[in-house]
Amino acid sequence: MNAPSLSSSTLLSETSSLETPSRRTRHSRKRAHFLTVPKMPLPVRALWDQASPEEKMAAHRTCSVMLQHWLGDLTKAQAALELKIPPLRVWQLSQQALAGMVAGLLKQPRGRRSGGTPMPQNREEDPRWLKAKVKELERKLKIAEDVIALLRQMPAQGSGARRRTRCRRRRPRGRNPGRANGASRSER
Question: pTM of the predicted model, to two decimals?
């Protein structure tokens, strides 16, 4: 029997492969396939509005039978006979109705109010415009207060001349209406 001869390079490669597994190198990038979003399902109200009167009556009848089945007034077989569907479909409708009821009991998003409060006719009644106006006026007031504070910190130039002009009384020109026919003070 011939024993296979192993070279030192073969032994080295076998021991290194036992210690760390060789990694597979990626030759191309990950391919991500994005599909277009299918048409969103209609909300429940839109489904009800688009249904014909016959479909609405059938849905109402099915709902009342489901409620009787849930309350125990009807068995699954009796409900299937009344709706003229197989018992398996009764169970499916029951699960679908329960899921719809649970979804309907979730917190609904606030929609836009239609007909509640009409839009203001002029800008002065619009709350958004008023808030923007208040914000603008507050900004202008802040600027004015800053300017006044800056002016108060500045040294006054010619303050003595200003004070003298403020203290002087202005004399009326021409005839004084208090004097009779041009009489002076001493004559009064």
Answer: 0.39
